[in-house]
Amino acid sequence: MAFTDAPSHETAWGKGADGERRVGGMLDTLAPRGTIRVVHDRRIPGGPANIDHIAVAPSGVYVIDTKRYQNKLVEDRMRRGAAALHVGGLSKPQMVEQMHRQADVVRHTFDVEVRIVPVLCFIDANWRLFNKSFDVAGVRVCHPLVLRKWLGRSGALTCEGVEDLHRQVLRHLRAA
Fold first, then answer.
1. How confident is the model over 14-68, as pLDDT tens digits?
2. Computed from CA positions of residues 158, 59, 121, 51, in that sequence, does the dihedral angle turn out positive or negative?
3. What is the enclosing helix (H) or strand (E) of 61?
4. DSSP string of 43-54?
5. What is the layout of strands, in order, in the sheet containing 133-136?
6. Are 149 and 133 a contacting pair, CB within 8 Å?
7. What's the predicted TM-score (pTM) here?
8. Which pairing describes strands 37-43 and 50-57: parallel, antiparallel, or unpaired?
9. Which residues pair with 142 in a beta bridge?
10. Domain boundaries defined on the chain
């Protein structure tokens, strides 16, 4: 056993964790600018699942799941008249459904109505030329550089509002 490779699920988890660290590091570089607050690795109540990143910005609250699919094409394809997420040629509706569940968890932590943006952020993936982001059933799918741009946009939340929502996330969602 000592000479065999690690099981495939361990290898996949390690690659995913590396992607989460890289996107988390990028998000952390935005936080010192004063208008964005970021929280990493929060437990979803009632189970072992987690939320990779939550970024509170003037333009809303971004619930971010990092996916690392090296050299796999990320694209939206029409399916039954609606856009569907495909990665490496395979349909991935479960990823979109998971993001809606994560967004609902975060939505219920706030005592005010706020714009929640579920995001699937793909790192090391391939993208079609001029198409590094798209929307599938209300979930934003993007490259990390696009996410960085979205977080920098102005919006309805003031600095005080960003701080208040950040405190609510910390209070209601435990670290995983």
1. 445 888 999 999 999 987 666 899 999 999 998 899 999 999 999 999 999 999 9
2. positive
3. strand 60-68
4. EPTTSS-EEEEE
5. 37-43, 50-57, 60-68, 116-123, 139-142, 133-136
6. no
7. 0.88
8. antiparallel
9. 121, 133
10. 8-172
